[in-house]
Write a structure and sequence with these properties.
The protein is mostly helical. The protein has two domains: 23-172, Cytochrome Bc1 Complex, Chain D, domain 2; 181-327, Orthogonal Bundle (Cytochrome Bc1 Complex, Chain D, domain 2), CATH 1.10.760.10. It has helices at residues 45-53, 66-69, 116-119, 121-125, 134-142, 145-154, 161-172, 181-186, 194-204, 210-213, 241-244, 276-284, 308-319; strands at residues 2-4, 25-27, 224-225, 253-254. The strands form two sheets. The chain has a two-stranded antiparallel sheet with strand order 1-2. The chain has a two-stranded antiparallel sheet with strand order 3-4. α1 crosses α7, α9 (194-204) packs across α13 and α12 packs across α13. The longest helix has 12 residues, at 161-172. The model is unreliable at 1-39 (pLDDT under 50).
């Protein structure tokens, strides 16, 4: 499968505020057991990053790799509420998509990483994920001739923790999408169905407040919001507070990118919703799910009370954010 990396300018009516173009194409390797001989060469740094993204040596027992949880066919997200790490350990949060992150300055649900390079070591060293120290990864790669050759071709100092992070980050920057139906409509190449158009109108309607958080070319304002999924009892993930220690951040999580959202179920930081319809149902009246939320954002306090048809239309609109490559 090949991905065309392309950001498009979408008119305001289609909810976009900017553009960024790239003509680089990437190839996703579906066979993680593919091996290369030491004489192979790589043309771009992102090619090295791709090798590392699918490399089991980045986990303690060499049983998992980045793509074990960030599955290409699911827009580089997982299909379960919590991913399994080494020794079958269960993670604490749902795996988000690794796509369309090149413009993000804070990463993870709680924003603890400040760049794509910075985020690399977190899953590698997390005891519930890959559970191996970066210096161990460095030594493993140094004992692998093909990696010595590849790193030496891009970095004067060869294999280091920083260079591993740089290569993986460079690969992740290529995982951009911009050829969804909504983009094609913006270019005059397609038309929304009546239901999709109604869904877009609902999405843009100020009274529904979708656009207050999900704005811009990637449908996120990159802010942190508490949408009511914290009550200190059953829903007890403190979110952004764990990073800032500011009580105003209790239960807040970074607003996610909505591109390819139809492929990334289950949803929310805790993977508690299995379908987009469940998500829209929740936004229609959060109190049906969490009767007594703590620190809920003011945007969420008044239920939207959407009709059944409204919910269907919103889901159909959200499906137009799926990139064409995933529909082949």
């Amino acid at each position: 499968m090949r991905i065309k990396s392309l950001f498009l300018c979408i008119p305001l009516a289609y909810i976009a505020h900017g553009c960024l173009e790239s003509e680089h194409e990437i190839e996703i390797h579906q066979d993680i057991n593919e091996t290369e001989t030491p004489v192979d060469s790589l043309e771009y740094l992102e090619d090295l990053g791709e090798k590392l993204f699918f490399e089991p040596m980045l986990s303690l027992d060499q049983s998992v790799h980045c793509a074990s949880c960030h599955i290409p066919e699911h827009a580089f997200a997982d299909t379960v509420p919590f991913s399994l790490g080494v020794d079958g350990k269960l993670g604490k949060r749902n795996t988000p998509s690794a796509m369309n992150l090149s413009g993000r300055t804070e990463l993870f649900y709680d924003g603890r990483a400040t760049s794509l390079e910075d985020q690399v070591h977190f899953p590698v060293e997390d005891a519930l994920e890959m559970n191996v120290k970066m210096h161990v990864v460095v030594e493993r790669l140094k004992n692998t001739p093909r990696y010595v050759k590849w790193f030496d071709s891009f970095f004067e100092d060869g294999i280091t923790e920083n260079n591993i992070a740089s290569a993986i980050a460079e690969y992740e920057r290529t995982l951009e999408t911009g050829n969804a139906k909504i983009d094609q409509v913006a270019r005059g190449e397609a038309q929304f169905t009546e239901s999709e158009l109604r869904g877009q109108t609902l999405f843009n309607d100020p009274k529904n407040k979708c656009f207050d958080c999900h704005a811009g070319v990637d449908f996120t304002n990159d802010e942190y919001r508490n949408i009511g999924l914290y009550d200190g009892i059953d829903k007890n993930d403190l979110g952004r507070f764990n990073v800032t220690q500011d009580s105003a951040d209790i239960g807040k999580f970074r607003v996610p990118v909505l591109r390819n959202v139809a492929l990334t179920a289950p949803y929310m930081h805790d993977g508690s919703f299995q379908t987009l319809l469940e998500v829209v149902d929740y936004y229609s009246n959060p109190y049906d799910v969490v009767p007594s939320p703590i620190n809920m954002d003011s945007l969420m306090i008044e239920p939207l009370d959407l009709s059944d048809q409204d919910k269907i239309d919103l889901v159909n609109f959200l499906k137009t954010l799926t990139d064409e490559q995933f529909l082949d």
